[in-house]
From TrEMBL, chain A:
Residues 294-363 form the Protein FecR C-terminal domain. This is FecR family protein. Gene3D superfamilies: 2.60.120.1440, 3.55.50.30. InterPro entries: FecR, FecR_C, Ferrdict_sens_TM. Keywords: Membrane, Transmembrane, Transmembrane helix. It comes from the Bacteria. Residues 155-239 form the FecR protein domain.
TrEMBL record, chain B:
This is DNA-directed RNA polymerase sigma-70 factor. PANTHER family: RNA POLYMERASE ECF-TYPE SIGMA FACTO, RNA POLYMERASE SIGMA-70 FACTOR ECF SUBFAMILY. Keywords: DNA-directed RNA polymerase, Sigma factor, Transcription, Transcription regulation. It comes from Flavobacterium limi. Residues 133-183 form the RNA polymerase sigma factor 70 region 4 type domain.
Amino acid sequence: MQKRNYYIEIEDFLADSSFQLWILFKIDEQGWEEWTLENQQRAKLVEDARLLLLAMKVPANKISSSELTAAMQATWIKIEEKENGNKTIKHNPVRYLKQYWPGVAATLFFAFLSLWSYHNQLDRDNSIITYKELIEDNKEGLVEQTNNSDKPQIITLSDGSSVLLQPDSKLSYPKIFTGNERKVYLCGEAFFEISKNTQKPFFVYANEIITKVVGTSFRVKAYSDQPNVEVLVRTGKVKVSSNELTGTSKNEIVLLPNEALRFLRKDLSFNKITNITEDKALVSSVGNIEQLSFEFTDIPVEQIFKTIEQAYLVEIDFPKDKLKDCHLTTSLSDQPLSEKLKIICKSIGNDTNFEMNGNQIVITSQGCN
Amino acid sequence: MKTQILTLKSYDDHKLWSKLKAGDERSFSLLFEKYYGDLIHYGNSFSPFAEKVQDCVQDVFADIWLYRESLQEPDLIKAYLLSSVRKRIARLYERDHIFKKISTTDSIEFLFDFSVEHELIDDEATAESVLYLNKLLNELPSRQKEALFLRYNQGLSVEQISEMLNVNYQSANNLLHRGLLKLRKEWKGSFPVLVLLSSGIL
């Protein structure tokens, strides 16, 4: 019992649960107070141990009973899945949908990426990472969409983001984004409009580089006719790093508005371009969507739809008669396609809805307010 | 505090464990409810991705249930659970695409910060010392912090810590000792008693 008489170090006290109980909960079952006062030096040691304990608080970890119940249920689901050997459906989709829908607020960035490999030049190099390699370790639950047509195709991701996939390109993405990051894998060329969610950064893996969205809106652009990858930012901030699979040291470059970056695949080097207007290659390949303005002031709805059709290469079917006198004033820049449509429908009136089916968009409306 | 609860209930833990092994779902649930919060908290100290941590902790329990028949009885159930969660998170760092390519750390890092028991401090001088100590504690290398946390907040023995951190007994001891030694050095004026003290006095 009186092992404490031999305590000579603070550690001895810290590890004594009855001492902890006395200091932290003022429960003195073993007469610590009295014992301390017996000896002045002992008192000093006790005081030091006390201060240290007070400085080592671990915040109480309160988990509500509903959270606990949910976690327990999730665990039983996991057990069932593992028992059935069904490892592909790892998560309960409903759970994740609930978490993600509120996050689909505003578009954060516009990204344009095009990545073409010069196979002849690059194939023998170990540092070259192919799309196949990228998705290999991450097959679980990925959906792959390939655009074999001659027109861009629109893809809407589970978080509301839209991707305009260019011909001869493919994108792999999870049917539903789970976890705290959103990752997609690109081969070829695509234009990204990502819905804002600061809690869940969005990553585009493309060949040797990774593009990460940090803040507000930006645009990334690269070229198809050169053995390199290019990223161009319009507004906001973007981080580009080389994939560590390349074996190079971690290299992260932050791009601000009107800055661009060219990644040379051959020697894995980054070139930052601070004045994009001086770079002819960059200036000459601006897509439809980047030239069109989405700032509308008292513009007929029909014309707004036309602009969207041009930008995304989609077809919009809407009741012309009912909407012919409707004009809107709205700013739709930096919004993914689904957000743009949502805002337009809401502005027209409560009875207006849209449905998206690949390149086909159908608007139903009873006219504007 | 927690250590006390631990010692009081460790018998119960072993009882729960053996019932669980026999297929008793209620014992499994009780164990889950008892430790889920602590494990989530511990896991969150390694990863800012709360959902992944939840997944890891739930996977640990799912595996316990699935492989219950072949499980050994650990000395301390809690140490076993903490260690399993730690391993799973470490594995996640190894395997996960983003972690593997974005993070440069070789091993997982304990990012936890100790806080101060404000409610138990009634005078200014104490408050000042405690705040200073707290700052020093939180500036310690992450492994030392983790060792201190496991030893004094979770009540693990030095052996259990050494197993968890995958180091030998002496290294685990050093982690604990060095952490506090550094505090003492920095906090010179206030710890002179340690220098004076010898076991004979008491």
